[in-house]
Write a structure and sequence with these properties.
single chain; alpha+beta; 8-stranded mixed β-sheet; 5 helices; 26% strand
Length: 155
Amino acid sequence: MTTSEAHRALDRHVREFFSGHPVGTATHDLGDGRRGTVPDLRVIEVGPGPRGGHWTYVTAGCWSRANDDGHGVEFVLTAPVPDPRFADLIAMTAHYHCGPRPHLLDVGHSLPVGEPWVPGSACDHILVSLPSSTAPTWRSATCRAATPVCCGCCR
């Protein structure tokens, strides 16, 4: 599967799963360093709708950089409000995951952010877990391009 085919498959899956929600691509700059590690990285942004009143950010492109026999992971982050910071955090997660092999993330791993997620927050790590706000449908979804994993705030 080519990267563009995978992006289309993941985009289609996100749009079907979040039917009735506004879906687009985060438009802010994800940074040259991250683009160097994950050149095809996009962040899909999903607004509130029938599945819930939260915002969801989904990576598209991780699987092509760090995959095992064509299977890899993408990351999902949910947030209470829209903010470019959340797209940046999930892009940071993709960059960390797709870097040298010792940084491959899996369920139960945590990633130091180096600063609070947002001003005034005590959360300065990302915990990789299975999606809970959309489970079990999202987890059991089959998309040849990605196996979704959720990034959630350490509470």
